[in-house]
Structure formats: structure tokens, C-alpha cells
Amino acid sequence: MNVPSLRDLGKLMITGKNHIGNKQSSKGNKTYKTFNPLLNLENNSVFTEATSEEIEEAVDLASEAFKTYRNSSGKKKAKFLNAIADEILALGDELITIYCSESGLPEGRAQGERGRTIGQLKSFANLLEEGSWVEASIDTAQPNRQPLPKSEIRKMLIPVGPIAVFGASNFPLAFSTAGGDTASALAAGCPVIVKSHPMHAGTGELVASAIIKAAQKTGMPNGVFSNLNSSGIEVGERLVKHPKVKAVGFTGSYKGGKALFDLAAKRDEPIPVFAEMGSVNPVVFLPEILKVKGESLAKTYAGSITLGTGQFCTNPGLLLGIKSEALSNFIENLSDEILKIEPSSMLHPNIYETFNRNKQKAISQNGITLSAEYTTDTKPNFAKQAVATVDGKTFLKTPTLHQEVFGPYSIVVQCEDEVQLETIISNLEGQLTGTIMAGENEISSYPNIVSALQNRVGRIIFNGVPTGVEVCASMTHGGPFPASTDSRFTSVGTDAIKRWVRPFSFQDWPNELLPDELKNENPLKIFRSIDNKLTQDRI
Question: I want to staple 279 with a disulfide (CB 3.0 to 4.6 A). Which of 51, 211, 432, 496 is the partner?
Fold first, then answer.
């Protein structure tokens, strides 16, 4: 597929309107357009930002929908999620065309991300159909217990209410309108209001139309999903402060995520904000593997640093090693390899400008050596990758170097010894991932390094690269603050559903009035803990 022209884009079915439940609406006067970073031109479609009236209507609909949607069976919700996947596929090439025109990302990436989005929806549908995710627990009554009788207590997870989801700039599909936050919230039984990301509003509108169509086809209540356009921060702020919104999902910058977190904490009824806010993803190269595989590792990591123009939250932005000839050779080889890679387009001129500004800020710090930087002229919005290096002492006393540079950039820290390496790791802020590259049997000689890294990250990788996040039940995509606002939860994988639920207990409740998950008969045949024994048996 070729990059579409502006004329072609004008033919695509984009209205620029908000989806307020089952209807489209454009009551406001504030409009904006998306941008094609490859052509360095605005796209044709005009989007109308949601007004305060439209926000209120969307939240009211979601609150009303929650009353019935929360009680929908797992099988009905699963049918809804599978229908969303089908409707997204039915959008065909139109979705891929809009995606590419608004992001500068290639067709293959668009198709892969669409596949991931559909896979996430189906994985949550499978979770719902099986049903044991609610963690049903039953402690039977002991009326004759002495000195006091024991009541019957039954517990399960229940949905919290309407969720506000913020679309992510770097994943127009998998972390946006029907991405992991939306899929997991809908699976939990929570209506969703998406604040569409302004950089890919057309992609968001198409996906929103697919969700609405799926909701109608499967008999979901009006208001179970809404999609609001927004070019600034006002729509998001109103959503977070709205008393009927009960939790927030966000993927993006530290500045944006922390601002939402603070807003939510100041409400009369504070609510959780589950924000994934980026990471430098430290990689530790132990001495032996650099001696044996330093040259090939340089090529591998040059590819990882520049993958997707460095616009992944798991980009390896910090490489750590102990000073040696092998580390010096690795830096030299990495510098050579990274210059062999042709630059590619960033998502938007604003992201491109921020990358250049942050890269320049980092490499201008005292004690920094710029090892390699692509200097050949490029097209507008194409990022020039770079690698810098610094000694451990300078890194420790220069907080600016600890911060993420979102784009194809990484810094190599040359530590004096293992003690300094451990100190540096222990002083890092929370990260999404940490990686250890080690030779055969080498890692067992560095238990303190492993322990220090484990304490700072949500996922630890052995002899791999951090880029690439598998969507599965065992994945943790989160980490200690500021990688995420709550390290107990993940935004990827089926456990992401646990962000949108709370534990709830019934005491001495009539069996016929209990949810099916807790009834004596176990009609859903799910696994339950009965008097501390995991079983599918009835009582």
C-alpha cells in the first residue's frame, strides 16, 4: 500500500464527529486536523472537539448503561468483545490507510497492531467465557463454632463503574480506542469513554464506529461506549474530575500521567489512575558476554534502539556495563551499527521536536561524550539516531541523564566496578523492564545486580531485548513509579482486567439471590475457593 494522497483521504468515511453512545454529535466550535508526518502536511478531515455538554451526556449515558451492563453475563460480554474484533476487521484497508496517514508508520506495522488489538479482544472474550477470573471465594457457615458462630461469607470481583480511557500517541490501535485499556474495562463490566488522541483521531473514529456497531448487534446498552474528540487537555480534565467516572486508563508521558493522577487524587471521591508513563529500560551487559558476543550484541541493540524510530515505551534507553576493553569495543561497534540504519519518520512534528530538544539536553550535559549521531540530511520529521556515553560517577550526579528521551537514542554508562553498577541500578527510578545480558553461567556470579534490578522494574529479561511486549496472562507491563502509578497492576495481558474491579463480599445472603458465580450449584462451573480449597464442585 502506498502512502495515500490528501485527495484520497478526502474520500474516506471520516465525519470528524464525536460518538456519544449510539449517536454522532458535533456541537462545538473548536476544530482541528490530524497530520501526515511522511508528507509533512495536514490531512483533510476536520474533527470537532467535544463540548462540556457532550462530555456530560457521554458520562450520563455510561453511568446509566452501567446499571445493566455490570450484570451482563460473561458469555454476553464475550460475544460483544468478539463482535468488536470482527467489526474492526471489517473496516478493511480503510483503517490501514488512515492509520498510516496519521502516524507515519508503515503498513506492516499497522497490520501487526491491528492483529494485536484483535488478539487482545479475543483473549478477554476467552477469559470471560471460562469465568474463573472473578476469583470467587466461599467460606461456609459454622453455626456451632465456639465461642462465636461463624457467618457464611462469599466474595468475588465486581466492576467499579464508567472508565475514562486516554488514547496513546504511539499505538493508534493497540493502546487506544479499542486497545488493552478499553478491552479489559469492557470485559470487567465497565462502560468506557475514550478521549481520542488528537494525532490519530480518524483512526479512532473508525474504530469507535466498529465498537458502536458491535454493541448494537449484540444488544449492549446505549452508552456502554463513547468516543470524544479532543485537541488539548480540557476534555481529559473534565472526564477525570467528573464524579460519575470511577477510574482512568492512560498511556503516555510522565507529565501527562502525573497531571491526571493528581487531578483524580484531589476529587471529593478520589479515584485510581492507572497510568503507564514510560521508561529508560536499563540493560546490563556483564563482562563475559561482551568478550564473546560484543560485536553481534552491538548490531542487535542498534536495531532495538531504532525500532519504530525509538517510539516504544520499552526502548532500551540506558545501557550499563563495567569498564573494560570489551565494553569500549562494544560502544565502538554500537556506534558503527546505529549509523548504518536509515532514519525513519516520527509520529508527529511535535514528537520530533521534543525528541531533538531532549536529545540535545542530554548530550549537552558535562561529562557526556557523543559516540555517534546520524548527520546526513533527512526528510522532515525523520529522527536522527544517536548514542552517547558517560562514566558512572557523572551519571549518578546528573539526574537529567536518568530521564527518558523518547526516540532513537541511548546512553552507555561505563561503571568503575560491580559496586558502582549496583549503586546506579539501585538509584534509578522505577522502570517497565530491566535486561541482563550474560555469558554461560555468568549471571550466577552477580546476585546483587539481579536483586537490585528486580527491585526497580516490572519485568526482567535474560539475554534478549526489551522491545516487544507479549500479550499473555503472565505478562507484567507496569513497574514501580514513575513507570506506572501502581506497580501492582499490568496494562497488558488478561490480568489488566483487575484494574477495573473491586472485591465485594456477601454475608449470609440467600442462595437464590447470589450471582451465579457464588451460588451453591456453581452453574457456571468455574473454579472457586471453598473453605480454602480450589475446586469446581458445588456446595
Answer: 432
